[in-house]
Each structure stands twice: as C-alpha cells, then as structure tokens.
C-alpha cells in the first residue's frame, strides 16, 4: 500500500474509533491506560485532569504508544492500528482543539468548567495497520 492510501486507511480507523490505550513511560517502565481519542485528520487529541501521572509522564518523556481500533470484519480479522508518536500538553485550548474535544461530552465540559482539564496532543511519527487482510503490517513514517 502506498503512503497516501495508507494515510486514507489510517484516517478511516481514527475517524471510526475513539477508545484505545495510551502508554507513557514512568520510571523507565511503560504505563498504559484506556483513553478516549479524537482526531483532526492525522493528529490525535485526548484529555485528562491536570496534575495526573499522565501529565507528569509526558512532561518527562513525550514518547507514547497508542493502540486504537479493533474492527471485526467478515473473514479479514480484527483490524487495528499501532501508533508511535510524541505527546505535547497545549497550554491553551484553542478553538480548533476545543471543537475536536467537545465531542467528548459532559466530562470534558465539566473539567473545562472547573479549569481542571489538560488537553493532550499526539503527533504521529509512525503507524502500522495490523490484521489488514493481505497487507503486511509494515511501519509507515508520517
């Protein structure tokens, strides 16, 4: 699959799946948790409370690993994506980030209203689509 077709397929998976795992590094060990993800094209966003371990982890080491999607398809296996990227912590929730995260519903609005919400932006460095029919899960740099 060429890079543009890969990006199209990756966007479809990101557009259709919001729940996945996000791993950060804490004390030189991986720490993984389930998160809700929202995307703007090939950029992922999620959020958490300020002062959480996730925020501390990202401040010390921005590298993250994300598993997202798990689509059951007839005769083709369960397709999902592995993502390696760099997380950042935007200081301000700009209108474009707010629009993406507003899909998160009541908890997002509550945390934002309490001024206890920290947005997390993930820029994808590399991704692999797994269990994608006959396509090998080769990493594609973005």
Automatic annotation (TrEMBL):
<feature type="domain" description="Pyridoxamine 5'-phosphate oxidase N-terminal">
    <location>
        <begin position="6"/>
        <end position="129"/>
    </location>
</feature>
<dbReference type="InterPro" id="IPR011576">
    <property type="entry name" value="Pyridox_Oxase_N"/>
</dbReference>
<dbReference type="InterPro" id="IPR052917">
    <property type="entry name" value="Stress-Dev_Protein"/>
</dbReference>
<dbReference type="InterPro" id="IPR012349">
    <property type="entry name" value="Split_barrel_FMN-bd"/>
</dbReference>
<dbReference type="Pfam" id="PF01243">
    <property type="entry name" value="PNPOx_N"/>
</dbReference>
<protein>
    <submittedName>
        <fullName>General stress protein 26</fullName>
    </submittedName>
</protein>
